[in-house]
């Protein structure tokens, strides 16, 4: 087995894969890569299964040293990656020689980058996944839900392929403020008319109160006019509106049930884009029907097979 030794890390650097499914009835949340698109492309660059375990690096502060020559891949944000001080752009596979250090400094564009290794990083599966969820103490290198720490080893055993680069036309543009598609939910008609106008016609600001559980959007206070709700299941991307009227988009490490009214849920593609937004970024919401969102999602997945 080949290994990378972790030289530096932060509590925001986690081992992730596609997440856990079929366990929400046990109160266990999904977990998994916040930007599943970038995770999938990082694995695609190496010929891995698209859901193979990767390192999710948020905001930088991570570094590894190669114990032997290896081929790795990066996809997602530009966090100022360097190999022994030389800049390395994402969206490509690259060679790291024995003894060289790969380091991530600070966000230059986007918030999260994904580091992949041939065959995926090796870790025990807990409830079918290696995804790290700190709150539930599940996943990660030892299965106990801990973040990656200095001195730990990242092992992998897959076969290295040729160096590969993702076509520029397929790379998301993190500089633009693309609208985030929202599939309308059951309580949408119980918000005031002014609130419904504001949701889709005003700009929202990403609050600093954001983590893998949820991202708060700051803007016009929304008014719910319906009856009090009984707690119900919470899907990935649900947009809840608490009493202060400021929406919260629930992400991979969300709770499994909740009682706040919901505008609906962001599509998986919109969630991946949102995961790359830093605090202070501006976003817009756009309504979409479920059939259209599903078709776009299927077409996106097909793109991995066509290349």
UniProtKB/TrEMBL annotation:
Residues 25-303 form the Carboxyltransferase domain. Keywords: ATP-binding, Hydrolase, Nucleotide-binding. It comes from Pseudomonas atacamensis. InterPro entries: CT_A_B (IPR003778), Cyclophilin-like_dom_sf (IPR029000), PxpC (IPR052708). It holds the Pfam family CT_A_B. Gene3D superfamilies: Cyclophilin-like (2.40.100.10). This is Carboxyltransferase domain-containing protein.
